[in-house]
Amino acid sequence: ISNGQYSVASMNEIFVWDGGPVINVSHDGGITWISVPTNIDVTDIMMKIDFMDAQTGWVLTGDAANHHALYKTVDGGATWNVLIP
């Protein structure tokens, strides 16, 4: 499992992501993990992730110029769409 931000959506749903090309996901409380490829790489600017269930989550980014963006996923972290660019 990578180092990074994490979100615990339930006792079973755990997400760990360093902002890179894959997000690590457990659907069984951390017993087994899968790596889900993502469509964005926010390694150096990721500030926080938060999942509300196995499919829906958000990531907040921020850079040195104080520009922030909010992304949302509805497919467990594979596809992220920017809500606030």
Rg, nearest Å? 12 Å
Shape: globular
SS summary, helix count? 0
Give the total of beta strands.
8
Classify the helix fraction into a percent range. Answer: under 10%
Tell me, rounded to a whole number, the average pLDDT: 94
Residue runs with pLDDT of under 50 for 5 or more positions: none
Percentage of residues in strands: over 45%
Largest sheet: 4 strands, antiparallel
How are the strands ordered across the major sheet?
A: 1-2-3-4
Order of helices and strands: EEEEEEEE
Q: Which class do the helix and strand fractions yield? A: mainly beta
What's the end-to-end separation, in Å? 29 Å
Description of the structure:
With 85 residues, the protein is mainly beta. It is built from no helices and 8 strands. It has strands at residues 5-8, 14-17, 22-26, 34-37, 46-51, 57-62, 68-73, 81-84. The strands form 2 sheets. It has a 4-stranded antiparallel sheet, with no helix packed on it. It has a 4-stranded antiparallel sheet with strand order 5-6-7-8, with no helix packed on it. Strand 1 and strand 2 (14-17) form a beta hairpin. 20% of the residues are buried. The model has no long low-confidence stretch (mean pLDDT 94).
